[in-house]
Sequence to fold (221 residues):
Amino acid sequence: MNQNKTDDKKLDKTEDVSKENLGMEGSADEKNHKAADRVEEKNDKTTEKTGDSEKVSENNQDDNAKSEINGQEESQSDQNEKEINELKEQIQRLAAEFDNYKKRTRKEKERIYASSIADVVSAFLPVVDNIERALQASEGSDESIRNGVIMIHRQIMEVLSNLGVKPIETKGQKFNPDFHEAVMHIEDENYGENEIVEEFLKGYIYNDETVIRHSVVKVAN
Fold:
């Protein structure tokens, strides 16, 4: 009987040891689970931080890309504006040059036309001179002939006037070498200094600018 009690005690101790071992194993498993949870939580936080860092990095990259694009756009805009201003300046220069060219061309045409008129009229003036001499010589002669010469002279003067050619004034005028040619000088107190006394040959001018022929005159000193 004593032997049975001893065996029971041993069995109880064995059960207690087993329970203790089971308790220790359960506690170890729980600790392992908690440690694993902490590691997982830490990993989650690390992942979250990494994700945030990646987002910040991506945002920074986007901002840098936007800044670079904006800088390129501004640079391109400045370049375009510079080119536009250069084109405007070129157009203005071309317009000014073309305007000057038109002015030069117009003046050149006017000069050529005036020169042509002067040449033609100059060659024709001796005919006018002869008609005027004929008028002076016909005084007191046949009236019909004289009237015919007068009509011819009037028509010629109208043609010259339409061309812009007219006689140079001499009567009562001061001598001007630009318009007059003095071939004789007299001393006469009845006239002023350098006053034209008499006209020997009529002069003509075109458009009040171009002298076709100087008036040949007598001048008082």
